[in-house]
Amino acid sequence: MNHEVSRRTLLIGGALASALMPRAAVAKTGLADFLSLSAELIGRAHLSIESARIYMQSLRLDRSARNSVRLARRIVADWYSGQTVVSGRMICVDYTGALMWDAMGFARPAGVPGEAAKWALAPTEK
Amino acid sequence: MDIFADVLIIGSGVAGALTACRAARKGAKVVIMEAGPEVDRAAAVRRFQSAFPKTPESAYAQAAFTPHPETDKPFAFYAQKGPHPFGSTYLRQVGGTTWHWLGSAIRLVPGDFQMKSRFGLGVDWPISYTDLEPWYCQAERELEVAGDNDDDLGSPRSAPYPFPPIAQSFLDLAWRNALHASDYRVRPTPQARLSKPSGDRPSCHGSASCIPICPIQAKYDATIHVARAQSLDARLLTGTCANFVQCRQDGRVEAVRFIRSDGSTGRVVARVVVIAANGIETPRLLLASASEAFPAGVANRSDQVGRNLMDHPIQLSWALARQPVWPYRGPGATSGIENFRDLNDRGVNSALRFEIGNEGWSWPKSAPESTARELALGGLRGKALDKALRDQTSRHIRVAALTEQLPLASNRVTLDATQVEKTGLPRPAIYYQLDSYTERAFANAKTRHEDMFARVGVEAFWHKEGAQGAGHIMGAARMGDDPATSVVDKDLRAHAHRNLFLVGAAVFPTGGTANPTLTIAALALRASDAVLSALSE
User: Fold this and answer.
1) Average pLDDT for residues B218-246, to the nearest whole number?
2) How many separate domains does chain B show?
3) Domain that includes residue B72, residue range
4) In chain A, what residues touch B330 (CB-CB under 8 Å)?
5) Where in the sequence is the domain holding A66, given as residue range(s)?
6) Is A42 an interface residue toward B (CB < 8 Å)?
7) Is-above-0.90 flag for pTM?
8) Which of A92, A104, A120 sits opposite B368 (nearest CB)?
9) B194 chain-A contacts, CB cut-off 8 A
């Protein structure tokens, strides 16, 4: 099932959870692992390295995300919303690149012009 | 250093820009003094997109010299002194708050001008709807308002809208169809956004970011008239904050002192001075200009400057519809329910204007981001997450009831002399409370909203507790015939200062329920004739 965390993901997540511990893995290796895990969790290969760096850094600082399941969910939440939490405060990382827009399929990020009067119609199926 | 002008206009929002344009067109030497900077539109769009939270101010940098209030930090800018924090905000920059207004260009209804004589509440305006109607028409032409000529929404018209209506959203039509057999009449909202191209401005392309910024300027903002005024040789001073209105013993304004963001100072000596700030900054400047001759501040012999501060306190409600309505598209609002704005029970129950939002739950819940996080943190991912996200966000609806807040002398702007800004102006202190009339309006609005939701068909609904600021800052320098109880006359001339005019929503004696910008524009255009006449005095 999609909402279950696969064994492989748990293994990667467990390793990453360790890697995210302070003074653990080298940052470069951590980022590669993080991208790999992110790709596995969200099913996409092409991810922004810049965003990944910020999401990973915020996870390093979040003690509540050290559990593998919670870590996985948090990674998915960050990529989909384009936001993450730093020092208890939500920040925007990549609004226009957030995966939620693709998932919704009928709306664009605010501030991106579309077609005149298209809002009067039901969206066409993707 | 002195700068000389025929007309000095302080503030470059819609009221100041229209007045400047009109005076410059008549050949007057005009200086526009703006405390804030010019805005780079593209940079502002990027700032908004990278902001959290996405408040109305999120597109605009805070300036150390001229800070502005922020929706999510109600105690940061204002010194809040009352039981309810004042939640409405404004911008200090070229174009003023038209940068982040929604664009709804609605007229008051005739009854809004007669609250005292019709309902025994508040005061009457010194002018009638009929007096202002031709100026509404002119304001609609200047702001290129798009509207539906088939329905005057209770405000009789002598001229058609200059532009055809903006298309109602799919979501609006779902509401309209669901409410068809009820008392709620869902109507297209007149809007100052282009329904077809005009000049070098494109028509609205549904960027869904009217608040805080239209990326393509399809929505009107006052920089349009600032630029026109400049093309007519008006001089724009940016980063230049008026901090003292200097009057002679006889009341005539002699000059206005200013300070620039670099610390330099000077004066503008003008034959006529127009203060076109807003409901906070106008009384702030007048009160800060106290002198031996005018110890309570300029234009304040009546002690009315700063009093009767009003907003349209909003009851915000949202729901999860049973069927998809496809929000998060198009202008922020394209329809409203206008037929509760002038019922016969206004003596007891506030008028209500219902605004149907196209932006889903972004106002109450910061969605769709919050929905995406909630679903993902709940354990969904992959196709299940995509499906749930589309399913839920496609059904997000919200409605906002704008209520009429009565003028209360105790709701007022004063100065907090313990905190002085770099401009030399003391921090504005606000005493603000909501009375039983407003509390009853909220209860009525909740009942109405629940009735609407039941007819639309929803799985669940929620009400925001507490008033939401509408951003409609009115009163605080009201107009009237009696100098003992008002600040300016019906031409917006200060009673005790022949060459001083105040334009903007600060002069509203009462607020009705219409978004105020079109009325601000109409009053400013009307006052422009008196401003020009004053040049010959």
Assistant:
1) 98
2) 1
3) 2-535
4) 118-120
5) 7-120
6) yes
7) yes
8) A104
9) none
